[in-house]
Amino acid sequence: MNKTPLPSLDSIERNWYVVDAADQRLGRLASEIAMILRGKNKPIFTPHMDTGDFVVVVNAEKVVVTGKKRTQKLYRRHSGRPGGMKTETFAKLQDRMPERIIETAVRGMLPKNSLGRQLFTKLKVYPGPSHPHESQKPQEVKINTIPGEN
């Protein structure tokens, strides 16, 4: 009887990637990042294991959305107290904490369980062009989220 081999924890090689979010569409960018975090771009992908890589996102403040989402898309959070719901538009959140926009989009595309929480810890988002992960020697990933452009 043949069995599909499972990758051992020692054999999983973790790479570091840098993604530049400047002038990229939010949803398309987030889905590509989620695939790298999950490990779906590797031949050893296993749905119930963490086989993915680390992703560093820079220039999060320059991510764009289409249509009227800049003024109409709402981000909600709750303090846990009665009446503790806070809402904020995309534009206000981008001025205040631009990294939270990408984090929220990517978190929504990961599994909703302990594996998803473990995968999310490998995402590092920074609002500007610099990041403190140079010693990991991250590779640059070119993601084209605008159809028709090269």
TrEMBL record:
Record's GO cellular component terms: ribosome
Subunit and interaction comment: Part of the 50S ribosomal subunit.
Name of the molecule in the record: Large ribosomal subunit protein uL13
This protein's UniProt keywords: Ribonucleoprotein, Ribosomal protein
Species whose genome carries this gene: Funiculus sociatus GB2-A5
UniProt keyword Ribosomal protein, yes or no: yes
Keyword Ribosomal protein: yes
A Pfam family the protein falls into: Ribosomal_L13
Annotated InterPro entries: Ribosomal_uL13 (IPR005822), Ribosomal_uL13_bac-type (IPR005823), Ribosomal_uL13_CS (IPR023563), Ribosomal_uL13_sf (IPR036899)
